[in-house]
């Protein structure tokens, strides 16, 4: 049996949602109605993210990438958390609806081979930025995810394996429903509470490491 840890990036590893940060910096007025429509469920995440990046001309890509890299703040304890997963033999995947230009530099700073990374790419060949989704929804998903976290889990996990999901937002909820145990903050915390999915809240990765170290605690009641 393998334990898989599926960890979100934006608002989880990074303190802020970097897509929102990019939009607020480069196209604040134009992106606002799209962000609101996605939050209200009138547009899928996939449609919303595509529409927002289309607001930005491709020749601004370098500036966008630099801005995102300079403004990513990593949540406390993440490097030690990678180390803890390696020691336990747990497979850690960062599964992000975000983009390679801000996810890769952060993860590679701490580890190059202990973490599998799933994230998206921007195509700069046209006049405006175009999203390339690296892992679209499979047949079993209702669609609209953009990067489909449930599909990634279905690809990686075999029956009998343990699944831990770490996240903060609505885009983590479909994945959380497939998990044996969830570490949640913000909106995701409310959703897993309502759904009674086994979970603990977290503020930093130190909290998650403490829960892993607590052999009598709730995590180990669900993950062997
Ligand atoms: Zn999907």
Automatic annotation (TrEMBL):
It comes from the Bacteria. Keywords: Hydrolase. GO terms for molecular function: phosphatase activity. NCBIfam families: DKMTPPase-SF, HAD-SF-IB. This is 2-hydroxy-3-keto-5-methylthiopentenyl-1-phosphate phosphatase. It comes from Alicyclobacillus sacchari. The lineage of its organism: Bacteria, Bacillati, Bacillota, Bacilli, Bacillales.
